[in-house]
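Slide 14.
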Amino acid sequence: MATITKDVVVYGATFPGLVAARKAAAMGCSVAVLEWTGHVGGMTTGGLGKGDVVTGTRWGLTRKFFQTIGANAPYSYTDGTEVVNFSSTEAVAAMEQVLLDSSSVTVVTGAWLRAVPKTGAQIQAAELQNGDVYVAKVFIDASYEGDLAAMAGVTMSYGRDSWDKYRERIQRDQASQEDWSKPGFNLEGADRDAFKSVDGAGNLYPQHTWPPYEREMAPSARSQAYGWRFSLSKRADRLPWPKPPGYRREDFIFVADMVNNNGGAGSVFPLRLSAFEVSNPPGQSGSNKYTTNGGDLPGFYTNPWTRASYSERIAIQNRAFYLAAGMHYFAANDAAVPATYRTNLNAWGLPADEFQTDYIGAPGWPSAFYVRQARTMVGQHVMTTDDVFDDGSGANWYKADSIGVGGYFVDAHPYYRWPLPDGQSTMEEGKLGYTGLKRYSVPLRSILPHRGQASNLLVPVCASTSTLIMNSLRMEPTWGVLCESAGTLAGLAVGAGIGINDVPYDVLKARLVADGAVLSI
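Slide 15: predicted structure.
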């Protein structure tokens, strides 16, 4: 047990958390980064190789990170070109060069929080379950789950907002057509999977939840699908689809039904992966290294995650690994699956040069369980659709206290999967995927808790937004620039010996602009 004193403590060694830490260090602060998992870099180094970006909004360390990937082999660009689709090894190399190159930043993994003591509204320390205590002047919660903020007593929202919480607009393709958001609403439509809803043992398909109930989204705390973003390989040295420990064939017989009925299994992968080749400089092809979209697991892998204990989260991701790995192993090897399907699937495998020491379940398996959305803070300003839909004046999407710019479309993945009465199919619902957004400014107030709750805490990842807006804001590069602004504010406050709420915005803005910040489009 030890007491460690730093200027700044960042909770969450996610990519954005490391950006915040490195920026605070550049401003003269000593920084400790505490991460509850054993993985450093979050999803950016954990399998999310297909970069979803908002054009023209990246700056500072976030932009430098993508430029560094481009400057490294195999690309070797010399003109500052950013590479946003990459392998995990490329991301790790850039992270070490850009974000982990300062002796003023200490990263601690396996940092399970026990308590966050306060004096009044001032956080004093982050106490870990191993007995270590980290004391700091400023705290930044950059975790995907918002654990430090929640433990500090900051008001947090969890699960999709109820229909009447904010009464937000859902803007369709035609601006004149609007609707109120409500549980189960699908602008993209609901997906019907044509396969039996029970496995070989007579159990419900293990992703099942029950149908949504009108106006009860918040009390039921449903959250959108979690899962994985994979690295895959078609190289000769690829690793075969792993057989999970305790594998029972009867648990996966439903996969044969999925494949034979051409429902739910996609064209090649049982988890509907979409593969994109990476590591190909211009004029070259054939790297046979891929990153993916897909791999979602709606249901009980999603809903309890945020409020679960650390050990319970590990159990959830291990159970999810059993399902996901077992589905691929069954589809690749079992005679109940057509030979052509098995041949196509076995042309793919896990990489032999990624996730060999840092993985979940088996070598080559991604190291990070993809948490698409967890808590959101209820802070000094809650961003809703009223902040981002253009009313013609520009007032809705430009904020005078801007610390960065977002603008990705609202992309909520399914919240539910449930069996239909015919017993032969299931339904997914809860998706939202519409594009009626302009690029919008993110106000400083949206990362600040109310002063009376935590006066020295910044929350730039689980920021103060509705769940609809978080589905736009939650891009790793967008979080990265918000975290750079948070690290800047922390550095200014520590340097001046004042609180983060007492730093004049004009002072913060001047430093951000000097650092090349994009604050409006």
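Speaker note: The longest strand covers residues 274-278.
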